[in-house]
Write a sequence for this structure.
């Protein structure tokens, strides 16, 4: 594949990712369905009850997955669907997921299943959720049932998606349900999430000794706004420590560093078979808050586009906790698809040039979805969704991604056709 912009993906296979609450639709009794019913919680006033109607359109969406030529698909389970009341499981819902997984396997697409992706049943949330160590036993019950029911179709699992995002947004910034604001509470939730992952990791391996189990960690680069400014430097270091280093150490190794404390019954060890990396952006820091640098490329949500950061966080993670790496989420909000192909090209080019053991790349997202606080307003999909009609349309970036997957790389001709004309938006603030 000659040419200045060409590359091959010799070791990294391609997939796409989704999450159950964001695409399935319907009225599952989750924390997010209830939260979105409160006025002012969601930017555009929408809720997850419409989403993509994926629950009723699995076959249609799996046909689109085949058009994308992907080898892998990361999907989530809606805990509230399969366990609508504590200890009571819905066999019909479980059979629905079996059918969905069976369709993927028949199509030659390997599933990676996420057990918890920000989605709590209301009964679990009302009982305190991850505020209490005892409550994490409910996650074990759910894990045992789902691995037992689906394990013949799936042997790769993500226990918890982005524990740091879930905990900080729900219990420190108060932006997500249940809307609490407490550093002390945040440390309790961090601790219990890590303990729950470790318990689930051990349980899954008891049931499936050869399974691959990991966590999807949200990682980002933190840089001081002014490199020589001691306050900016200290803030960047502190944010990185609190946001990702502490929780990663607890999840991966069972070691709980300050401000966390070692929970009873949890012992240091190795609790991962691969690392999931969700990477989107870089934070420019002048205080204990996210910031964006001047005159940098940004997406529709104002997040900086910084492709080399993917390798920076992967290098740190692999150097600290060696193991196989999956990029379990990477994508960008871009409603007119004007720079998504460039975004994909630049991030995959970083992977192709790296000698890190990055085995998978899952683009976020397969299709436009209900994007939490942003509702239906943020467009991440390779497939465009008309929410009113539920019509799906392959975007140009989707066609580009499909060609990359088919060719295992990018040719110069592909670059000229899909990428050369695309220009990023710049931050002018």
């Amino acid at each position: 594949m000659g040419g200045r912009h060409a590359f091959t993906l010799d070791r990294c296979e391609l997939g796409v990712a989704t999450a159950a609450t964001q695409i399935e639709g319907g009225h599952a009794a989750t924390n997010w369905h209830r939260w979105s019913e409160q006025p002012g919680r969601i930017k555009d006033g929408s809720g997850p009850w419409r989403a993509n109607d994926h629950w009723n359109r699995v076959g249609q969406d799996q046909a689109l997955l085949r058009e994308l030529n992907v080898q892998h698909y990361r999907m989530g389970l809606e805990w509230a669907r399969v366990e609508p009341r504590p200890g009571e499981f819905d066999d019909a819902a479980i059979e629905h997921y079996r059918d969905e997984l069976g369709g993927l396997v028949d199509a030659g697409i390997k599933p990676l299943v996420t057990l918890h992706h920000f989605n709590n049943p209301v009964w679990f949330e009302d009982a305190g959720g991850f505020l209490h160590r005892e409550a994490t036993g409910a996650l074990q019950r759910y894990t045992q049932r789902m691995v037992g029911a689906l394990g013949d179709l799936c042997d790769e699992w993500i226990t918890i998606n982005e524990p740091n995002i879930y905990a900080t947004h729900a219990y420190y910034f108060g932006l997500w349900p249940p809307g609490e604001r407490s550093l002390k509470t945040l440390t309790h939730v961090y601790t219990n999430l890590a303990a729950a992952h470790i318990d689930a990791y051990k349980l899954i391996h008891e049931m499936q000794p050869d399974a691959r189990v990991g966590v999807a960690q949200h990682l980002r680069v933190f840089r001081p706004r002014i490199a020589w400014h001691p306050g900016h430097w200290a803030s960047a270091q502190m944010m990185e420590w609190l946001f990702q280093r502490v929780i990663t150490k607890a999840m991966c190794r069972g070691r709980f560093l300050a401000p966390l404390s070692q929970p009873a019954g949890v012992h240091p060890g190795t609790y991962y078979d691969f690392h999931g990396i969700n990477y989107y952006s870089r934070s420019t820091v002048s205080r204990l808050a996210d910031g964006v640098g001047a005159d940098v490329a940004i997406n529709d949500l104002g997040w900086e586009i910084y492709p080399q950061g993917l390798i920076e966080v992967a290098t740190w993670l692999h150097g600290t906790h060696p193991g196989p790496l999956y990029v379990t989420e990477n994508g960008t909000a871009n409603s007119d698809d004007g720079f998504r192909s460039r975004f994909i090209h630049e991030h995959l080019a970083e992977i192709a040039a790296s000698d890190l053991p990055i085995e998978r790349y899952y683009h976020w997202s397969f299709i436009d979805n209900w994007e939490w606080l942003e509702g239906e307003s943020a467009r991440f999909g390779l497939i465009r969704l008309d929410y009113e009609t539920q019509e799906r349309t392959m975007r140009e970036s989707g066609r580009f991604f499909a060609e990359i997957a088919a060719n295992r790389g990018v040719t110069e001709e592909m670059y000229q056709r899909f990428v050369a004309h695309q220009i990023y938006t710049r931050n002018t603030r």
In short: The two ends are 40 Å apart (CA to CA). DSSP finds 14 helices and 14 strands in the chain.
